[in-house]
Amino acid sequence: ETSLLKVEHTFFTAGSGLDVAVEMFDLFENPVGDLTKCQYFKIFVISTTGGAGLRSCNNKGLCLFACTYDQVGDVNVSAVFVSPDGTPEEMKHKLVLQVRPGLPNALATSLAGAALSIATCGIVGVFSVYPRDQFGNLREEEEDVFSATLAGRSATDVLFSSRGGEHVGSYNVTRSGSYLLGIKLAGFLLVQHKEFLVRILPS
User: Fold this and answer.
1) SS3 of 158, please?
2) How far apart are CA 123 and CA 176, in angstroms?
3) What is the mean pLDDT of the chain?
């Protein structure tokens, strides 16, 4: 007999479920209807980079397995048939799938830049936002929308531009003093719902 792995899509998002089906055929490529053998299959998801470990998939019955993975990158989906006497036999047929980042997460998203804490009047302050999903995977999609408010002695607009997985925020303040910078993703404040205290120095 031979066996094939089958999936509906060649990619899935980190943390989401992926259904993997096992189809069995005889030597003449006729489907094998004996589903009792499904209990002897084990499905594994292995990172092609070798850095994200091994994940075993749960049997959902009728030769269907549910797999999850939380690290972005390419993964090999393989199967091992363990006979009733305990002898393992690895299937030759494997799949290479792509794990993509999940939805952006406000608490996992990271920020960097001096303008998060200090800037000078008349000089553009710049900081960077790196959107990540709940597992810390960097999202390189540019459709993630960030907004920010800088409240203090004067009303100041914060502008954003995107380049890959980096979103650059900038502002230019003309009055010195202490300001509160709030950066939001989909209406939620980043960094555990805190605002940044920014000190604007005289020019």
Assistant:
1) coil
2) 12
3) 85
pLDDT > 70: what percent of the chain? 91
Q: Which of 39, 105, 110, 41 is closest to 70 using CA atoms? A: 105
Give the closest residue to 102 by CA, choosing from 186, 12, 192, 187.
12
Q: Quote the DSSP letter at residue 117.
A: T
Neighbours of 194 (CB within 10 A): 11
- Residue 74 · residue 97 · CB < 8 Å: yes
C-beta separation of 60 from 68 below 8 A: no
Residue with tokens 């794990």: 99
95 CB burial (10 A radius; 0-12, 13-18, 19+): middle
- Over residues 25-79, the pLDDT tens digits come to 766 677 776 667 777 888 888 887 665 566 778 888 778 888 888 888 888 888 8
Comparison of pLDDT for 115 and 92, the residue scoring more:
115
> Strands of 159-163's sheet, edge to edge?
110-112, 125-130, 166-171, 159-163
